[in-house]
Amino acid sequence: MTRQIVHLIAAARPNFMKVAPLWHALAGSGDFAPVLVHTGQHYDANMSGDILADLGLPDPDFHLGIGSGSHAEQTGKVMIAYGEVAAARRPDWLVVVGDVNSTLAAALVGVKLGIPTVHLEAGLRSRDRTMPEEINRIATDAICDVLWTPSPDGDENLLAEGVPAQRITRVGNIMLDSFEMKRGAIAAAAEPTALDLKGDYAVATFHRPSNVDDPIKLAALVACLIEIQGALPIVFPVHPRTAARLQASGLDTQLGAAGIRLIDPLPYVRFMSLVAGARAVVTDSGGIQEETTYLGIPCITLRENTERPITVTEGTNRLSDASGAPALLRAALRWRGEGALARPEYWDGRTAARCLDDLRRRAGMLDNVGRRLAL
Question: Which of 218, 268, 285 is nearest to 247 (CA)?
């Protein structure tokens, strides 16, 4: 039996966590063969390279080496580079994940070449079009053939935008498959012990331009973290972008003087070991909102909106600005899991298996030369 070739596109750290469980499911399936394409949009080892080993992924079959640049540069470079790969080594399926520039760029290549194209983590909406990721989400969902959603709000968003129901399959949250896949290693990593953390602590992560590129907002963020530090010690793995902004303004010195521990970004297993042991998380990340909900850890997200509202309505996440976050943190410290919230449906570590089942079902809807039928 000939195995169908599936290109999996990864570009940024969260992409690898979404790709890994699906790669393993496809590799063990017998009827599909995964091909890992790394666009190189993130190229720092701790932000991408080390995570391959952490998640049991092989070296990428293709590395496009795109690097940094403007949104237009990254999108255009990925389209050119992946277009050459896809034309020369045409897959039977293309799967794009998340909402980075590479997601939209590869999807554009796929649909224009007539390759059946799937968006994993489809349907998320923040309703904030000033976020580049929101534009990527909307455009990617508009052109992909198959949309794999993580939660009911994703289905509802797509249906409201006029997407035919047959293109949508709710598969669940694949980020949590990665956590379950590496749960033993995460526990064994004992990162809090390695960092000599004793007692309760909070983890902080910030990287969004809306928070770190504006000097006024960055200063407010630093003031917020210093105030929180007075109630709960903070460990802050610093994203390269954030580190550059803090150093340029001298605010890293203020954080250090307040006792906040600034550390380099951590590979996935060590980072999740740190998060899993935390009393609370303060962030502007998307994925951590999901992971903390799954783990029952209070999360304060310094954003005006979230594309993952289920983490607020059914989870442990709360939105805030910098001035309101310390009070929310103090309230979170009084919460000890009483009446713990149920996890959202299909957030169970079995999303990759549902993706594989849906791909098999839809593969039967293609003719024997790969033309689209009723995907």
Answer: 218
Is the four-CA dihedral 16, 17, 19, 20 of positive or negative sign? positive
Q: Is residue 370 part of a domain?
A: no
Predicted confidence band of residue 43 (pLDDT cuts 50, 70, 90)? low
Q: Residues 171-200: what's their mean pLDDT? A: 96
User: pTM for the full model?
Assistant: 0.92
DSSP secondary structure code for residue 165 in this structure: G
369, with CB counted inside 10 A (0-12, 13-18, 19+), is exposed
3-class SS of residue 330: helix
372 within domain boundaries? no
Assigned token pair, 249: 């303004």
Residue 335 in this model has a pLDDT that exceeds 50: yes
Q: Return the residue matching tokens 């790669």.
A: 23
Are 147 and 271 in a shared domain?
A: no
Amino acid letter at 58? P
Order of strands, sheet of 234-237, starting from the edge strand that comes earlier in the sequence:
261-263, 234-237, 202-205, 280-283, 299-302, 317-320
Strand partners, 236: 262
pLDDT averaged over every residue in the chain:
92
Q: Tokens 């504006």 appear where?
A: 214
Q: Is 341 domain-assigned?
A: no
Same domain, 156 and 198: no
74 touches 40 (CB < 8 A): no
Q: What is the DSSP letter of 167?
A: G
| pLDDT value, residue 372 | 53
Contact 51, 25 (CB under 8 A): no
Instruction: For residue 279, give its domain range.
Output: 183-334
Catalytic residue annotation: 207
Contacts of 251 (CB under 8 A, 6+ apart): 218, 219, 222, 245
The C-alpha atoms of residue 88 and residue 75 are separated, in whole angstroms, by: 20
Confidence band (pLDDT; 50, 70, 90) for 334? confident
Phi and psi angles of residue 218, each rounded to the nearest 5 degrees, phi first: -65, -40
- CATH code for the domain of 164: 3.40.50.2000
Q: Give mean pLDDT, residues 205-220.
A: 93
